[in-house]
Amino acid sequence: MSFSLIPKLVVPDIFYVTPELLRQKGITFLLLDLDNTLAPYSEDMPSEQVLAWVAELRASGIEVFMISNSRKSRRADDYAAACDMLFIKRAGKPNPRALHAAMEQFGKRPEESALMGDQIFTDSLAANRAGILSIVVRPIEMKNLFFRLRYGLEKPLRALSKEKLQ
Predict the structure, then answer these.
(1) Which of 93, 105, 106, 144 could pair with 126 in a Cys bridge, judged by C-beta atoms 3.0 to 4.6 Å apart?
(2) What are phi and psi of 61, to 5 degrees?
(3) Band of pLDDT at residue 102, cut at 50, 70 and 90
């Protein structure tokens, strides 16, 4: 179990992560953060572009699962239902327990699993602790001061990633 905050892969947004890229890395199971990764905090339903991307992943044999620290009562439920994907909310990231539970549910090993999220201190750390590929995206929204400060603190860690896609 690694306690590294450095993500293995940094991408601008989820759409840079293609089925081909995941297959090259041996990934068949993609865990997805909700807030500021799949959707801004203000959106309750997936965009057509997100739905098409999820469908493309599935069509190529990549299984998807949403894993969120969200505490909003219905938002994660509704979003996951619209994407027709299973999910865990109140996941407690960076604790990797929920990631292990999702992998176990799908019969997946760490080496064939990845977590994509926008935060270093929760998503990247949880993935690294679980022994799976950590993929970090640029946050969708930077509306409040807290997010801008946190992103500023994370910037050097993102820069240390060995692999970045522009």
Answers:
(1) 93
(2) 95, 10
(3) very high
Q: 115: helix, coil or strand?
A: strand
Residue whose tokens read 């801008």: 148
Distances (CA, A) of 159 to 8, 13, 133, 165: 11, 16, 17, 12
In whole angstroms, give the CA distance from residue 106 to residue 133: 17
Buried/exposed 8-39: b ≥16 CB within 10 Å, e otherwise? bbbbebbebbebeebeebebbbbbbbbbbbbb
The label of the residue with tokens 């176990």 reads 104
Q: Is the pLDDT of residue 94 over 80?
A: yes
β-strands 9-11, 133-137 pairing: parallel
Q: Which residues pair with 63 in a beta bridge?
A: 29
Angle between helices 48-59 and 75-83 (to 10 degrees): 50
Of the candidates 123, 39, 124, the residue with the CA atom closest to the CA atom of residue 83 = 39
Q: What is the mean pLDDT of the chain?
A: 93
